[in-house]
Every structure is written in C-alpha cells, then in structure tokens.
Design goal:
Elements lengths: L4 H15 L37 E4 L1 H14 L5 E4 L1 H5 L3 H8 L5 E6 L2 H9 L6 E3 L5 H9 L2 E5 L4 H12 L3 E8 L7 E2 L3 H10 L3 E7 L6 H20 L6 E3 L3 H6 L34 E13 L4 E2 L5 E2 L4 E6 L16 E4 L2 E6 L7 E6 L9 E5 L8 H8 L3 H6 L6 E2 L1
Parallel strand pairs: 1-18, 2-3, 3-4, 4-5, 5-6, 6-7, 6-8, 8-9
Antiparallel strand pairs: 1-10, 10-13, 10-17, 11-12, 13-16, 14-15, 14-17, 15-16
C-alpha cells in the first residue's frame, strides 16, 4: 500500500538527515549510485530536520509585481489600474499580492469576487479601495461596507439591498454598477439598465463610484460590447446620471481593445507576468513572471530498458535511463498535461516531464548520467528560462495560461 504523502515526505527527510551523505548502490547492485556527484552550481541547501522542506512552494517576486503594474499603466496611457486579485490572486495569495501592490503608485485599488478575499485584504492592512464584483447578501454586505469595501450592483433589487446595508452601518454605501453587454453571466442587461441606473444614482443611501462591464474576448463581438457600453454611458450622462469611473479593459482588452480603456483599466492575468493568448508576440509590454513554482527532488533512480514510469506506463525506457521524482503534482496545481512536452529547470539544465503527473509527484527523464541529486531544487514555472515561462507551459500542455496560475493550490507555502 502506498504511504500517505506526508508520511512519505517525513520518511524521506528523516532518511536524508540520518544518512548525511550519499546512499549506497541499490540492493540489486546493477543500478548504480543513488546520488550523482554534487554540481558546482544550481543547488539550494536543504533545511536540516525540516520535513516540510520537501513540500512544493511558490516564490513571489514583489519587484516583478511592481514592474508589471507599471508596464500596464504605461500601456494604458497612465490610467488608474484596478488590480484584479480574485481567486486567491490567481493562485499567488490574495493577502501577499495585495500588500505588495498596496505600495504601487500605478494601482488605485483592487477587485475581488469573494467576500472573504476582500476581508483578507483589509485584515492584512490594505487600505486602498476594494471592489467586490460578486453578489453579497445583506448581512455580508453590512460586514463588507463597514470595512469600506465597495459593492457591485447588478440585480433588479440592488437598490433595496444597498439601502438596507447603508441603514445598518449608518452611512451611504459605495457601489459600482455592473452592466451586462452580452456575456450573459453577471450584470444587469444593458437593454434595461438605464432606468435602473438612474434610480440607483438618485438614491441618497448609495454612492456610485464606478460602472463596468466585461468582454467575451471575441474580436467582432468585443467591439459590439464596447459600443453597447459606450452608448449606455452616453445616454446616462445625457440624462445627468453620474456613473463614476467607467472600466472595461481586462488583460486581453489592454492588448487588443485600446478603445475599451475609458476611465480605468481592470487587469488580472498580466499583473502576474503572463500574457493573454496571442499577446506575447505583440511587443507592447515587457512582463515578468512574478512567481516560481518550485519543488525538490525526492528520488533518483535508474530504470532499465523496458521499464515503465508512473500510471499507465505512458513512458517506457528504450535503454537504461536515469529518472528523478519531484514532490509536486496536479493536486498542487502543476497540470496533468505537462507530459505532452513540458520541461523543468534544475540548476541550469532542462529535463522533460515523463510518465504521468500524479496528484503528488512529477517525474523527469534525466538521461544517461545521474546529474540530479535528492534535495535539488526544480523550477516548474517561473522567469528563469523560456521553457518554464507560464505561457510556454500552457502552450506545450495545450491548456489556457489562466489554468497555469489559477489551479495553483492555496495550500502551497509562499516565500
């Protein structure tokens, strides 16, 4: 029976600590030494006695986050940036990213979808404006508004909901009007939004700070959506309706819809150094991946010709070959489909992913010589080589670059 992951990692760490040096050859005597000679560079020390040191982790690059925010602002003509850090800041940690970008002059505020993320930002000391783009019931709205979190209005009864919140906290509620221009996911349909918006802006308990929509990211249809939103805004302003700051541009629109920028931009993905599909070759912005997904090697062994690797025997060795196991898998957010051509950086060398990415482990093909040791650090995603960039991994795995980030486990340690 396979050991539980924690038990395995604890045992592996304990064995490494007790051994102190290299392991002896395998019992069969024909598979060579477990460890290769130490390389001159590319090693990271293993913390003695710490079983958790074998767990995968994320390294967050604050300087890259600041750089990306500046690049986005430059691309947007220095418009304010409403930083979307929903879904745990695309996997990087909402409190960590929020506190970093709190000090960015380019970032005017933050947008999230879940109430607990807004509260986590406030609890972490973030003072800039926060917009909850999701729906909150009245009780939750009271808690949020009392912490100066702005609420999205997009239901027919938004006036009653926001008024109830305002009365409970004893002051007007700040809100953004959410208009649906064709996504049909969230927002009040634009065809009937004008009288609704007028009623909300006339309500003394509601302070409208902004109005927004979202685009489907389809070339022709995005143009139609922008035209609909613009027509709505012009009609509203013609009737004296104060809509606040208008914001439409997502990461995709920043590159492909310059006419959608309005008063503020609302990017997510690009903050973290990944490009929307098709945008990497535009040379419009030089983004830096703001994180590294890293793990340590926990096993090095030689397989013989005919030996299979991992579930399904998708990889069968054609000749004696060294392989290495990393303590990271799809439960941590590394994609299953990485076996379709992804590579991992260990030291200054790339190794291809083979077999199957299981829940807790990923296996690399090392080659004829054991050039990797237990405890070596592998970079699965990061800025250090073209082959491990988020967009490269997405392309080779045949997945969306959003999946590379948003599927990162919230349980990953962050450094």
């Amino acid at each position: 029976m396979e050991l539980e992951r924690r038990e395995f990692l604890h045992a592996a760490a304990g064995a490494a600590i007790l051994a102190g040096t290299r392991a002896t050859a395998s019992a069969a005597g024909d598979r060579g030494p477990l460890f290769a000679p130490s390389r001159a560079a590319g090693r990271a020390p293993l913390e003695a006695g710490a079983a958790a040191s074998y767990e995968p982790w994320l390294e967050i690059d604050a300087a890259a986050l600041h750089h990306n925010a500046r690049e986005i602002a430059r691309l947007a003509g220095n418009l304010p940036v409403l930083a979307v850090i929903k879904n745990n800041a695309y996997g990087l940690g909402v409190a960590r990213v929020g506190t970093v970008l709190e000090t960015s002059a380019a970032v005017s505020g933050f947008a999230v979808v879940k109430p607990e993320e807004a509260l986590a930002l406030r609890n972490a000391g973030v003072r800039k404006p926060i917009l909850l783009m999701g729906l909150a019931d009245v009780e939750t709205g009271i808690e949020l508004a009392s912490r100066d979190v702005q609420l999205a209005a997009f239901t027919d009864d938004a006036g009653q909901r926001l008024t109830a919140v305002a009365r409970a906290i004893g002051r007007p509620v700040s809100a953004h009007l959410y208009v649906d221009t064709g996504m049909s996911r969230m927002g009040l349909p634009h065809q009937r939004a004008l009288p609704w918006a007028e009623a909300l802006t006339r309500e003394p308990h509601i302070r409208v700070e902004g109005t927004f929509t979202e685009l489907a990211e389809i070339d022709d249809f995005d143009d139609a959506q922008v035209a609909r939103f613009d027509a709505f805004a012009r009609a509203a302003r013609g009737r004296g309706i104060a809509l606040g700051a208008l914001h439409v541009s997502s990461s995709h629109a920043l590159f492909f819809r310059p006419g959608a920028r309005f008063d503020m931009v609302r990017p997510g993905l690009v903050l973290y150094g990944a490009y929307p599909a098709g945008a990497r070759t535009t040379a419009l912005a030089a983004l830096r991946p703001a994180f590294r997904l890293r793990a340590r090697v926990v096993r090095v062994e030689r397989v013989e010709a005919g030996d299979g690797v991992s579930y399904g025997r998708n990889y069968v060795a054609q000749r004696p070959t060294w392989i290495a196991t990393l303590a990271v898998g799809h439960a941590d957010g590394y994609p299953r489909r990485a076996v379709q051509g992804a590579e991992v950086l260990v030291g200054d060398r790339l190794y291809r992913v083979i077999g199957a990415v299981s829940a807790s482990h990923t296996i690399l093909e090392i080659g004829d010589e054991p050039t990797i040791e237990i405890g070596d650090v592998a970079t699965l995603v990061g800025p250090d080589h073209e082959s491990v960039l988020p967009n490269t991994l997405a392309e080779r795995a045949g997945i969306s670059v959003y999946d590379v980030l948003m599927h990162l486990s919230a349980e990953l340690a962050k450094r």
